[in-house]
Amino acid sequence: MTQTHAYDVTVEWTGDLGTGTDGYRSFSRDHELLGEGKTAIAASSDPAFRGDPARWNPEELLVASVAQCHMLWYLHLCATGGVVVTGYEDHAHGVMTMDEAGGGGQITEVVLHPEVTVTDASMVEKATALHGEIHAVCFIARSVNFPITHRPTIRVHPN
């Protein structure tokens, strides 16, 4: 039997400024992402598309999802592979390329820059190599059609 997992979210538009969508500039792109028992995430469109820069946009959330999945699988592989990680921070970067007609675009790459701290210098080589195994198992990486690269930095925790 095939195992499946379902993920239910609600996207609630909060951007009616009183006249609905009677014109392209007459409404806000603000919305909230909701999930049962979860704190709402304030979201909007990219500021380039009339969004609120103080809110998360879908493109940022996609890049964040890629980075989160990579991190979670990396920590798992380290834990099962004998690499003791004491710190992890990623400065992920995504690029959206607009089509020539200007009406659409797509994410064309995500580059992850994980900065990992391990407890012993003997773990650095394996800690670096494990990043290369994640694309095969990360649910998000396996679901997207753009390249995901990683440029890890591995540090040893000072004693």
From TrEMBL:
<dbReference type="InterPro" id="IPR036102">
    <property type="entry name" value="OsmC/Ohrsf"/>
</dbReference>
<protein>
    <submittedName>
        <fullName>Organic hydroperoxide reductase OsmC/OhrA</fullName>
    </submittedName>
</protein>
<dbReference type="InterPro" id="IPR015946">
    <property type="entry name" value="KH_dom-like_a/b"/>
</dbReference>
<dbReference type="InterPro" id="IPR003718">
    <property type="entry name" value="OsmC/Ohr_fam"/>
</dbReference>
<dbReference type="InterPro" id="IPR052707">
    <property type="entry name" value="OsmC_Ohr_Peroxiredoxin"/>
</dbReference>
<dbReference type="Pfam" id="PF02566">
    <property type="entry name" value="OsmC"/>
</dbReference>
